[in-house]
Amino acid sequence: xxxxxxxxxxxxxxxxxxxxxxxxxxxxxxxxxxxxxxxxxxxxxxxxxxxxxxxxxxxxxxxxxxxxxxxxxxxxxxxxxxxxxxxxxxxxxxxxxxxxxxxxxxxxxxxxxxxxxxxxxxxxxxxxxxxxxxxxxxxxxxxxxxxxxxxxxxxxxxxxxxxxxxxxxxxxxxxxxxxxxxxxxxxxxxxxxxxxxxxxxxxxxxxxxxxxxxxxxxxxxxxxxxxxxxxxxxxxxxxxxxxxxxxxxxxxxxxxxxxxxxxxxxxxxxxxxxxxxxxxxxxxxxxxxxxxxxxxxxxxxxxxxxxxxxxxxxxxxxxxxxxxxxxxxxxxxxxxxxxxx
Length: 341
Fold this sequence. Notes:
- Residues 1-24 form the signal peptide.
- This is S-layer protein C-terminal domain-containing protein.
- Residues 36-93 form the S-layer protein C-terminal domain.
- With 341 residues, the protein is an alpha+beta fold.
- It has two domains: 3-16 and 99-334, CATH 3.40.33.10; 27-95.
- 29% of the residues lie in helices and 23% in strands.
- It has helices at residues 135-141, 149-158, 166-170, 180-201, 210-225, 240-249, 273-288, 295-300, 328-334, and strands spanning 7-13, 27-28, 40-43, 48-51, 57-63, 68-71, 74-77, 80-86, 89-92, 105-110, 231-232, 235-236, 260-265, 305-315, 318-327.
- The strands form five sheets. The protein has a five-stranded antiparallel beta sheet, sandwiched between helices. Strands 2-6-3 form a three-stranded mixed beta sheet, with no helix packed on it. It has a three-stranded antiparallel beta sheet with strand order 7-8-9, with no helix packed on it.
- Helix 4 (180-201) runs parallel beside helix 7 (273-288) and helix 5 packs antiparallel against helix 6 (240-249).
- It is globular, with a radius of gyration of 20 Å.
């Protein structure tokens, strides 16, 4: 089935903030200082650390998923939104919001790039963010998606994939066994577009490296050799054992997923480099311009991200892209050999 004839269905799953050794589920009622709004009780949808106002962890205590905390105001710390839950105590807003993206499917319609005519004009692909779409508004949209409805509609309209070269059109690929140069080219393509989006959103560019790419490729390989996609027992989910195994083999001592965002297009097998790049492009749009959720956008635009790399796996007749990030917190708290710093 060719890409120009496809009604693409994309499912995305974001890096989840889920931590081990949680405390018992309960209702926590800390003293609230400097109340700026009506106090609300909020349910944790992920296990969560408590942070100080400087962005450092207050202690090793973990609040368990299902716990209720009371908060009255939001504070931005190092580019992320936190709820104030007590004296110099904060939790990430993303740990209290139901992530509807987990079972969300985006339909992008019949996706047509500039193929099929003899007068094809090749050019470099780009990503354009509409006016009003930036890191600040994305953070706000995590809890109120409708505020970016206009920008998301425009973003899906103005961003269209094009074939970049005749060489890409002619280069055959096997998504189950990409060559080293093809893996590098896909990563280079994805990171260039990601950084275009990040700069327009008002945040720093991320770096990529052979080490980060190896981590991404190892994660992708775990999915592929175990015939896994982003479903487990019929429900969307990351393949945590594979992520943890690959991470630890690369000096990242995690016990859960802190590093991966993922997207899949079902029942397609890219045959050329152009089609493989088209897959990456569609996946990136699904992160940025999904009117139902902005957790992915918040994650890939996170100003604390330092390194990123992207790899492809192919299982169950479907290509999946793995967007691996190493943010400052992960580097500081989970790397074991010091060389990620």
